[in-house]
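Lab manual, section 2.4: Encoding a predicted structure.

Procedure: take the sequence of the chain (335 residues), apply the prediction step described in section 2.3, and record the output as structure tokens. A sample record is shown.
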Amino acid sequence: MKLIIPMAGRGTRVRPHSHTVPKPLLPVAGTMIIERLVETFIRTLDRELSEIVYILGPDFGRQIKKDLIAMSERHNVKATFRVQEVALGTAHAVDCAREDLEGEVIVAFADTLFDSKEKFNIDDADSVIWLKKVEDPSRFGVAVYEGDRITGFVEKPEEFISDLAIIGVYYFKDGEGLKAELKRIMDEDIKGPGGEYFLTEALDNMINNGKVFKTATVDEWLDCGTLPAWLETTGEILVKENHSFEAEKYPNTTIIPPVFIGDGVIIEGSTIGPKVSIEAGTSINNSTVENSIIRENAVIEDTETSGSTIGAHTQVKNVSGTIDIGDHSSVQIKK
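Recorded output:
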């Protein structure tokens, strides 16, 4: 089975970090968002993945491909790359992988993480849509259903129709059938709000033509699409995973779990936590850090911060407060 992951978006809501790293490659407690997504599929699908098709932006560099190839190899799947030159909507993004649409395929947009205690059975369906029960359906696209069979989709309903939100993960038994639907949308120039091509147009037409769509309800759905969401999701995963650490490695330091501390991290004379993720190679001295994400090889000195996201290879000194700062930056407040 192929897993198709559109990830060409610029990730504007997680800037400044997405200026140098695509959003799906940002870390959550030591593991890239996209790798967590792949690991969840491997754990929860009732069949094996053979290939991951990454749909990238035209300016994504060689290092990004190297990272994705290495990640794919860790999970024994082939990596294939396609390019979306211009972002014209969800249907257009998937259509950029048209030559890969054959046999069984899963399409997963890499904005969110999900989890389930049980494996998903995707037999006896032309398509399966991953859904999460939500308190406020008016914020989401939702699936209308009877039993476990989906009968239609409604985008941000003003009146209650369904409380099962579409999380952006879709299984198709017949990739060629999906390809034909996408071709129809492009050929007939069927656009939705904002002048974009929407995948839901293909889904609606497939249902109208008698295809069997079923639900797959997830237990957990976590957003990484904005800076506050990335922080919140990291905190929730830290609580869930409860990473261990060796307190004696960090002199004159108090560590308040949950935290993630990567390899080669140096901490002295500081208070760390709760809900702090520190990537490999970072150094922290004489500082207090809580509810924050610190990327790899950063240097933090004489700083007191909470709710911050600090980029890789960044230096922060004498800061008091919340900051969001990208890679290879320097912030120093003179006393």
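Check your result against the sample. The chain has a mean pLDDT of 92.
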